[in-house]
Design a protein that fits this description.
This is Molybdopterin biosynthesis protein, E chain. InterPro entries: MoaE_sf, Mopterin_biosynth_MoaE. It comes from Enterococcus canis. The two termini are 28 Å apart. It contains three helices and nine strands. The protein is α+β, with helices and mostly antiparallel strands and 136 residues long. Strands 3, 4, 6, 8 and 9 form a five-stranded antiparallel sheet that branches. Strands 1-5-7-2 form a four-stranded mixed sheet. It is elongated, with a radius of gyration of 15 Å. The chain has a single domain, classed as Molybdopterin biosynthesis MoaE subunit (Aldehyde Oxidoreductase, domain 3).
Length: 136
């Protein structure tokens, strides 16, 4: 069963990575999405994340199940609230018997999270506030 969590506190990457360790799996692939300072020529001061939490957990659980049914172990953690430059916004980890499947599963999860899960971001730039969502 996947570990799925939406949280306001900082993501403890080492803790969640360790949740993936299992003697059955030889490959662990992780993705950490970090708040960056620049998007092209636009300077970001920070980002706020909000979600339709009940639906987000439901959708994340469905995504994780689609990867786990292929023999993987999955961890997905997403921050909510106000984040500063350099903080992790999302952690995705996939453990599989073989590395190729772990890479494929991790990429699938981040791509589909961004397209299908009701989590929205508000970017605080130096001169404006921009909203982004499902396709960002």
């Amino acid at each position: 069963m996947a570990l799925i969590k939406l949280q306001t506190e900082p993501i403890d990457v080492a803790f969640y990575y360790n949740q993936l360790k299992d003697p059955r799996y030889g490959g662990i692939v992780t993705f950490s999405g970090v708040i960056r300072e620049w998007t092209g020529a636009i300077q970001t001061k920070g980002i706020g994340y909000t979600a339709y939490e009940e639906m987000a957990v439901k959708e994340l659980t469905k995504l994780a199940a689609s990867v786990e049914e292929k023999g993987a172990k999955v961890v997905i953690v997403h921050r909510l609230g106000e984040l500063a430059i350099g903080e992790e916004a999302v952690f995705i980890g996939v453990a599989c018997p073989h590395r190729k499947d772990a890479f494929v599963g991790c990429e699938y999860l981040i791509d589909h999270l961004k397209k299908n899960v009701p989590i929205w971001k508000k970017e605080y730039d130096t001169d404006q506030i921009r909203w982004g969502g499902l396709s960002q």
